[in-house]
């Protein structure tokens, strides 16, 4: 109860300080090992005040996931500048993503590792945000296809698959970049563009990699033919 | 104790039946919700026998992770046939991966979702297997670079980044394919080849996507120059 008396600043400010401390502690020590005592100490407040504001360790963790997820989603949206050519949009979106994850490694660890590692409720929180980013990337790929000024023959299902692949690649690279000393956000973004863009770019231009004809035809979504490459000229 | 009397077949066979039941239950219901009662019932044995053989729910889950992880790793290794050109190796490795994850959706859910969602010990188990697959893909990309019969100017660090991107993309696509009715393993592999191979292929041929010169030079690992594309002829 004495804790409430230590309140000298607006609740919103105090709460952000608690969340800052919680993200750092959850991100670095893991959800299980993190204690409310050390989060309160790092935030410079009493433990009862943390409980008064955020209710429980579970609710505090959920608040961290939401804040970090929103910040990341907004950074990516702000980064992908509409109006640029598709490859420039993708480049600026990816640069924004890797810049954000590099600057907020604890937030990224909360979202991509901790939130998926401690139960279905937290995992569902990040799954919803991830779905939003995949939908955004899907639109970006569709816009790129339109920019290509031709029919790139991309069924909706394949575009969804490409967006899933791109998001999965970016997540994996962000983990790796944060664990590898000296890798910059620009380098990660350039690696992913080298990996992905020429592939997507060729696809937009109607040049498809097609599998060898050694195990039966591909039916349905991809529309790929047999043979090694099929540049459509 | 009466449970031991029900043993009519070799322990190894019985144990595999328990693991089959456990993988199915953990994969479909989640680690938390899965009960030892239902696993025993599905395996057609008594609960005490499950505890006698596998010790605890944690140990049973760990045994599932190891069995499924080993099976997946071996399927991918068997799929990527050495001696083929690099794109064919990658195609056959990816096809093997998506075929395995499609045929064993519960095993894949255990490895990629459940094992990372229920504590650091389980997460560390899959992280070690994932590192093995990344190392394997890294070697495959290096072999592809050698096949290209020229110096593709790929620093070791960038190859590691490319391998992380490819593995992350494949994981993400496997989740998506298993959740999307009608997507075949061949389609997933073709989508990823379309996404990734032309990108890697261009890179092997010395054609790099390079970022616009709007935010300073890239230093270090990627070696990318400024400008939009840089085909090295």
From TrEMBL, chains A, B:
Residues 222-233 have a biased composition (Polar residues). Residues 12-72 form the HTH tetR-type domain. Residues 35-54 bind DNA. Transmembrane segments: none annotated. It holds the Pfam family TetR_N. InterPro entries: DesT_TetR_C (IPR054129), Homeodomain-like_sf (IPR009057), HTH-type_TetR-like_transc_reg (IPR050109), HTH_TetR (IPR001647). It comes from the Bacteria. Keywords: DNA-binding, Transcription, Transcription regulation. Residues 208-233 are annotated as: Disordered. PROSITE patterns: HTH_TETR_2. This is TetR/AcrR family transcriptional regulator. It comes from Streptomyces pimonensis.
């Amino acid at each position: 109860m004495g804790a409430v008396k230590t309140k000298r600043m607006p609740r919103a400010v105090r709460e952000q300080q608690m969340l800052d401390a919680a993200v750092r502690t959850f991100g670095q020590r893991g959800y299980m090992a993190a204690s409310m005592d050390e989060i309160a100490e790092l935030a410079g407040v009493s433990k009862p005040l943390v409980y008064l504001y955020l209710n429980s360790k579970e609710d505090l963790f959920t608040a961290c996931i939401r804040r970090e997820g929103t910040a990341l989603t907004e950074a990516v949206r702000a980064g992908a500048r509409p109006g640029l050519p598709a490859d420039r949009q993708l480049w600026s979106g990816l640069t924004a993503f890797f810049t954000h994850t590099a600057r907020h490694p604890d937030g990224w660890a909360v979202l991509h590792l901790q939130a998926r590692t401690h139960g279905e409720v937290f995992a569902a929180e990040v799954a919803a945000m991830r779905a939003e980013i995949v939908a955004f990337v899907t639109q970006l790929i569709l816009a790129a296809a339109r920019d290509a000024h031709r029919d790139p023959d991309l069924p909706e299902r394949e575009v969804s698959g490409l967006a899933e692949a791109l998001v999965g690649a970016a997540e994996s690279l962000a983990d790796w970049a944060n664990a590898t000393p000296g890798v910059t956000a620009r380098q990660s973004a350039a690696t992913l563009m080298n990996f992905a863009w020429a592939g997507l770019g060729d696809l937009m231009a109607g040049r498809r990699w097609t599998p060898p004809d050694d195990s039966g035809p591909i039916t349905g979504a991809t529309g790929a033919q047999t043979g090694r490459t099929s540049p459509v000229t």
